[in-house]
Design brief:
This protein is about 40% helix and about 15% strand. The protein is α+β, with helices and mostly antiparallel strands. Helix 14 packs across helix 16.
Length: about 650
């Protein structure tokens, strides 16, 4: 009570809210002009406004008779801006800078806390401000002067260079076809400074009439600052509760409202989602989530939804991968869309994403480089595919996002069978489009029928080692049988082929055995078991040049001579070569040749082999040790008969 007595109420003032000029009242500020030097008495020549941008331009006259005005400078500026000839488009029609332009800029976008007050007869009348603008002098006439100067220089240069030319020069025109604009690119373009400037320039100017401070029209407009119903009982604007009155005086700022989280326009709440048909609910959920187990989908749709209807609907928008549902590619990439990274059409993107999904039906791991090499898509597109359904693991690759759902596989075998048939047809299309070889394709892990799809890479290696150990005895017997067959065939009577040991123990055992013996290269030695140079006699005679000389007449061509020279030079450096090694050296030789050389005409393996045999070399079959995968391969080696001793190495295929 003591505080209230120390601070008594001196006067009560009624406050009125006037709204007649609420949407038209602006506050002009002149920051480069002191308050004591106003523009009230200066003639205003014109005024215009862009209401949406709250941009104002005023033209004010300059007192050219003032002793502080430099007339020569004013004439020079007018001459630079308009040139010597004055017309209707001239900025300064009097050939003298006799006016200046003021342009406005917004000081703040939130004017809800600002109002113009007028106190009269013990009443305070408030009118909200629509905008607060600061006006500064504009120097756009300098830009016009520079443009005029450049135009005059260009006209002079064009006049000097084209006086004698009767025809115009032919100009090259480049035609470019723009790619379809994606949604992200459109949003970036709309938010760019260039687009905003263009949009602002498109708004038309609204021309205004300026009335001075002491004009009768201005006095009439100032009456609208008073609340029109202040004398009657109709003014109920401020008959509010204290909290509502305080909210009107201090409304929340727009910045605070923007900080509140707002759901995107393309996101629906669960309440809104459940008002849609079931098929649309499933499609929207799968399009946003990308990968989802069937149990999670049922929990999102609600307990009252029939699972049979959900199964029928999910198969229209998703595919089964490792027991989980992955949204179909054509849902994410509609027909007329394209890649935001490379501009690739939707058809190619769908095919590439289907390949990634199919790879995950074969294994839990996928390597991005392998996918890019097959699909021929850019790395960004492939990364988008993988991010939809997988997570990256360092030094391993991309692992499927969700664990194998064996429970769904066991409960719905009919759906699994139907999806398996769909994947079989998709696989056939992918093999045709990407030229996939069936022999080199990974063996299906039957991820749709059991948990074997969870086998990791380390487990596979361990299984392979176990199988190799189990088959060791079989491999040993096969090796001995092959060795006996080779010894019995007696390739050449005077040639002994030394086999390279596969381990240090075998090498120690073979060190004390046979020494390399000179090879008998005489043609009259004869061959055992009806073999001609290691092959049946029937294949070494007649027109077959498999182990003989090329057909007559082909050795005199430039290509044959160049190939013969390469073969002879190669076997002078290395006496024994396998066919694959010889082909590698030949490819290196081609790389060193200049473009247009005769050897670029095309050399087949048969022609290379015939040239080697025609050069006097012999062909032998060298056995190879068996592989851990139970495959035993032989190798073909050529050796030069001019060398005294030969040592051949076994190729492991």
């Amino acid at each position: 009570m003591a505080n209230e007595e120390d601070d008594p109420v001196v006067q009560e003032i009624d406050v009125y809210l006037a709204k007649s000029l609420a949407e038209k009242l602006y506050l002009f500020q002149y920051p480069v002009r002191p308050a004591s030097m106003t523009y009230d008495d200066i003639p205003h020549l014109s005024a215009k406004i862009k209401p949406k941008q709250q941009k104002v331009e005023l033209e004010m006259a300059i007192d050219t008779l003032n002793p502080n005005y430099c007339r020569s400078k004013g004439e020079q500026i007018a001459l630079n801006v308009d040139g010597a000839c004055a017309d209707e488009t001239s900025t300064y029609s009097s050939k003298l800078m006799d006016k200046q332009t003021f342009c406005s800029s917004q000081t703040t976008t939130n004017t809800s806390r600002y109002a113009a007050a007028l106190y009269r007869q013990g009443e305070l009348h408030l009118t909200p401000l629509h905008g607060i603008l600061q006006l500064r002098p504009s120097f756009s006439y300098l830009d016009k002067a520079d443009a005029k100067h450049r135009e005059r220089e260009a006209a002079n240069e064009a006049g000097d260079s084209s006086q004698d030319e009767a025809e115009e020069d032919v100009k090259q025109i480049t035609v470019r076809f723009s790619r379809p604009e994606s949604e992200q690119a459109r949003q970036r373009r709309v938010q760019s400074y260039e687009f905003l400037q263009k949009k602002h320039a498109e708004e038309p100017w609204v021309h205004l009439h300026y009335y001075g401070l002491r004009d009768s029209r201005s006095e009439h407009e100032r009456q609208y600052l008073l609340c029109q119903g202040s004398s009657g009982v109709e003014n109920t604007e401020l008959i509010k509760s204290p909290s509502e009155y305080l909210m009107m005086l201090m409304p929340p700022s727009q910045e605070e409202e923007k900080e509140k989280p707002v759901a995107p326009s393309n996101v629906l709440s669960m309440a809104q989602l459940r008002t849609l048909p079931l098929a649309d609910q499933i499609k929207i959920l799968m399009k946003n989530v990308k990968v989802m187990p069937f149990a999670n989908l049922m929990s999102l749709l609600g307990p009252s939804v029939d699972s049979v209807a959900v199964l029928r609907g999910i198969q229209k928008v998703a595919m089964l991968v490792q027991g989980n549902w992955v949204v179909k590619s054509d849902i994410l990439y509609p027909k007329d869309s394209s890649s935001p990274h490379s501009g690739v059409p939707a058809e190619v993107l769908c095919r590439g994403r289907d390949f990634v999904m199919w790879k995950f039906t074969q294994s839990r791991w996928v390597v991005r480089k392998e996918v890019a090499a097959v699909t021929k898509l850019c790395a960004e597109d492939v990364k988008d595919f993988l991010e939809h359904m997988a997570v990256v693991r360092i030094n391993k690759g991309w692992e499927f996002l969700l664990p194998y759902d064996g429970e769904f596989i066991r409960k719905h075998p009919d759906v699994v069978q139907r999806q398996h048939m769909l994947w079989t047809s998709i696989q056939a299309k992918l093999e045709k489009v990407y030229n996939l070889v069936k022999e080199t394709m990974p063996k299906k892990l039957d991820g749709q029928s059991g948990p074997t799809g969870l086998v990791s890479g380390d487990q596979r290696v361990q299984v392979a080692k176990t199988k190799a150990q189990q088959n060791h005895a079989f491999l040993e017997r096969e090796l001995q049988r092959r060795k006996e067959q080779i010894r019995a065939s007696a390739v050449l009577p005077g040639v002994r082929i030394k086999e390279e040991p596969m381990s240090e123990e075998e090498e120690d055992e073979q060190e004390g055995e046979e020494e390399e013996e000179p090879m008998d290269t005489s043609p009259s030695g004869g061959l055992n078991n009806r073999l001609a140079n290691g092959l049946p006699a029937g294949r070494a005679v007649g027109g077959d040049s498999f182990n003989g000389h090329p057909p007559p007449g082909c050795a005199n061509t430039p290509v044959a001579r160049e190939l013969r020279a390469f073969v002879e030079a190669t076997f002078q450096r290395q006496f024994v070569l396998t066919l694959s090694e010889l082909k590698r050296l030949f490819n290196l030789h081609l790389a060193s040749l200049p473009p247009g050389h005769t050897l670029f005409s095309g050399i087949s393996d048969r022609m290379l082999q015939d040239t080697v045999l025609a050069a006097g070399c012999k062909q032998i079959l060298v056995p190879a040790l068996p592989r851990p995968d139970n495959r035993v391969r032989g190798a073909v080696a050529f050796f030069d008969v001019s060398c005294a001793k030969v040592r051949s190495t076994c190729s492991l295929g």
